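Project channel, design review

CF: Before we commit to the Actibacterium lipolyticum constructs, I'd like one complete example in the thread so the newer folks can see what an input/output pair looks like. Taking Cytochrome c-552.
RD: sounds good, go ahead.
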Amino acid sequence: MPSIFRYLIIAMLMLSQPAVAQEREFGLMADDTLKASGLMQYILPRFALKTGRRAALVDTDGDAQLGAEGRPVLARGDQVYGLTLLSENPAAASFADWLLSDIGQRTVAAFTPETGAPFTGAAGQAGVEQAVVFDGDAARGATLAGQHCGRCHVVSDATRMTSIGSTPSFHALRTLPNWEERFMAFFALNPHPAFMRVEEVSPEFDPQRPPPIVPVLLTLDEVEAIQAYAASLQPADLGAPVIHQ
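CF: and here is what came back for Cytochrome c-552:
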């Protein structure tokens, strides 16, 4: 009898795995113009980092669709794009909630396409803009930043003489008007994808293009800790703007 129960438990666990995967991943069909613009490559890693769920771009049989129909979520000039949920996949519903939220709308607006007009949020939300809050462990983030980011960036006074000198310090990055968006998905901004991966978010390294340096592998908790540390820093005093005569 115990062996029968063991087999039953194993079978139940195997059957439950697809359901667990479905809760964390979903298929997304997107208009060709959205994919060609680079917007999807920009917002999907940020969605994954914020929610722990991933979207896979598919051509057919998706759980959600971004296109000319559906609830308005973003726009480019006069063209409005909507989101339609096509299944009850929890990850797809989470994507809809995120994209319609203040942070999702700001993420869309923060994207700068290589060509063409910029995108804007079209959810029609009103009210006071909410500040981005990084709720990771800042103390742990300081250690992680020194260990991983200090290779190239000055992340504290202790690493002032160990960086490569050609990359901005964390304090300098904090002076940028879009510093929140930069730190929110730093792992997806060049050159980081060439040598950095975030578990459950980043794709595997391309075997044809191995990392040029020792790769950096981070968990979502570690990413959030680094973000919280960066948010705790005082922006650098870069002096008054240069006045051209």
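RD: helpful, thanks. The chain has a mean pLDDT of 85.
CF: The chain is about 40% helix and 15% strand.
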